[in-house]
Amino acid sequence: MTLMSHGRGLRDKALVGLLLLAAWWVTSLFFQYWVFPSPARVLTALNTAISDPAFGSFASNVAVTFGRLLVGFVLSVAIGGVLGTLMGLRTNVEAFFRAWVVFGLSLPAIFVAFSLVILLGITNWVPILTVTLVGIPFVALNMWEGAQDLDSNIGEMADFFGASRRQQIRHVLVPQLLQYLFPSMYWGFITSWKVLFIAEVFGAGSGVGYMVNYWFNQQRVDMLLGWVVVPILIVILSQEALRLAEDHVISWR
Question: What parts of the sequence cross the membrane (predicted)?
Fold first, then answer.
């Protein structure tokens, strides 16, 4: 993707965002502000959350949430990536883990979160492990399919020219797997964010999900939405960063 086409893509996304914002404002005119607050009221609530410590430390809670997200996401990509690659390359590994991957994909995130709360209590590890356990089978499935589609001719050519095992992994295996790893990371990051949010609502004593649950119990829809505006923007920007990294790495490959 060229820089110009990427710029057009950003403009298109910005236009969609403005249209959604306008639709939000128009819809809010038909409801009471405590049922469906306008964008202006949500921005006021966001400013209150940021500036008034009595409403919870905004920066620290957002930092805690994304710290958990990063740890859980990295663990799920690392473990799921290795597992899926081995499943695609070795039939005995595939035979052993196939049913477990399908089982993991079928587990609802809320069930995993509740189970970890029962086992561990309200701890910092509940949301991290929820993201990791839910993400591993998702990443493994994508990498498993990718490893099965590897071009064997390239590997045979590397053998013919006497490439070492390390050289084959670095210059043959990894470049081919990158085209499957980045989509796994792209969608896995979105999934991880949603899973983490659920886990923080039910199994954490801090973070954005915890604060949203608090304001839900207070029946303050404006504060509830105010707490998720910035995290959602961070997730969107992170997705764009992953897209740029994918374009750079794949073009290099």
Answer: 14-36, 69-89, 96-119, 125-144, 172-189, 195-216, 223-242
Residue 223 CA to chain centroid, in angstroms?
A: 24
At 99, which amino acid appears?
A: A
The label of the residue with tokens 């954490």 reads 204
Write out the DSSP string of the chain: --HHHHHHHHHHHHHHHHHHHHHHHHHHTTS-TTTS--HHHHHHHHHHHHH-GGG--HHHHHHHHHHHHHHHHHHHHHHHHHHHHHHHH-HHHHHHHHHHHHHHHHS-HHHHHHHHHHHH-S-THHHHHHHHHHHHHHHHHHHHHHHHT--HHHHHHHHHTT--HHHHIIIIIHHHHHHHHHHHHHHHHHHHHHHHHHHHHHH-SSSHHHHHHHHHHTT-HHHHHHHHHHHHHHHHHHHHHHHHHHHHHHHH-
Lowest average pLDDT, out of 109-113, 135-139, 181-185, 209-213, goes to 181-185
Whole-prediction pTM? 0.80
Asked if the model's pLDDT at residue 1 lies above 60, the reply is: no
Q: Which CATH architecture has domain 34-252?
A: Orthogonal Bundle (1.10)
pLDDT recorded at residue 128: 92
Which carries the bigger pLDDT value, residue 151 or residue 247? 247
